[in-house]
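Protocol step 4 of 5: obtain the predicted structure for the target chain.
Materials: sequence only (see below). No template structures provided, no constraints applied. The aim of this step is simply to have a reference model before the mutagenesis design in step 5. Sequence pasted as it appears in the construct record:
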Amino acid sequence: MGRATSTLHPHAGRDREGTTVARVGLISVHTSPLDQPGAGDGGGMNVYIREVAERLADRGVHVDVFTRRTSLQQPEVVEIAPGVEVHHIEAGPARLLDKDEVANQLCAFVLALQRHPTAGTHDVLHAHYWLSGWAGRRVAQRWDTPLVQTFHTLGALKNATLAPGDLPEPPLRLAAEERVARDADRILVLTCGEARLLHRTYGLSGAKLTVVPPGVDLARFHPAATAEGREREVSGPAPELLFVGRLQPLKGPDIALRTLAEVRRTLPAARLRVIGGVSGSGVGVTGPDQLRALAAELGVADGLVLEPAVDQSTLAERYRAADVVLVPSRSETFGLVALEAQACGVPVVAAKVPGLEAVVGAGGALVPGHDPRDHAAAVCALVTDPERWARTAAAGLIAARAASWDRTVDRLLAAYGEVAVAHRQTTGPRAVTGIAV
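Step 4 output (structure tokens):
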């Protein structure tokens, strides 16, 4: 199809050299920004894509998000904000599939995307997760469009930190990630630790890697205000602990529950709220039924509250009601939950793994290993010392306030612009384009 030159928004995104990036395609094959984070395959990636898409649109960049249709009731296109359209691509049965099954539909996804009305109109394609990267590299070659990749999680890292009962990532994923890493024009990593992992695993040069940390919605995630205008205080002998995440071994909800049991040796009235849904290898391992059974075995069933995934506004309320947020993950590429908790003025007790080390500093405690006794000791040190708790909460809040989504988008636009300039220098000038009407 032919292309029509677009009319640019006066605040259209520009890279450092002044080149306009007017249209960006975000590829998210296996999960949609419309999905509920914390349920199924929805998580921090869903939040990331929606937040950056809406803020890119605020800068005048039109954003098309491409995701697989999972229901016959889904419209072909959903506008989630002015300038942001989610396109449901026909690829396999229109129902939810496991990620392993989605891999079998990638060829169909690529073929459908190649025929899409927006084909070839984007200045940059940005793929999220390895499934999208595999599809993105094929489409980028066909459309002569530069490809930016964010993995969010890496199979090599997950296999190196497998939790009991978890399943290793298949060889297909490991091979695909290596191919995508080599073929993409730029890899955007969430932390310096992820950059080092990609360098060690695939030998990628630093010039190909750009650190773009996620942000936090500071308008939604903020501390509670008391009626007297004072900052809230720790609850004392009956602290509420909070775990937020998908109920799978990787995230460690079982460790959070065992931590509660250890905390109750010192503070018998302590409680734990667990928010999230079963995902992946959590089925039959760390799901609600298994957690209830474990709570009964540990003698803490009266202190456990299980809640399904909630919307972002409700989640912020849950953070503000907690005294400590537990993040005992076996591995994390980036700890968005820890960042959101700190933005709400709540200390975090987290496992000392690379993705969490980049987020949790003075705003919490990083615990080496996954022994519940060690995590419980860190919790008790905070909740039994109100001054320490207040200092930690204040430090986390300061750090979180420096991590806005606008900062993330600044870095994204710079990376997009650099990639677009390099691509034009290699292939010749390319007009800024829009969709013919």
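Step 4 remarks: Confidence is low (pLDDT under 50) at residues 1-11, 431-437. The domain at 240-401 is CATH 3.40.50.2000 (Rossmann fold).
Proceed to step 5.
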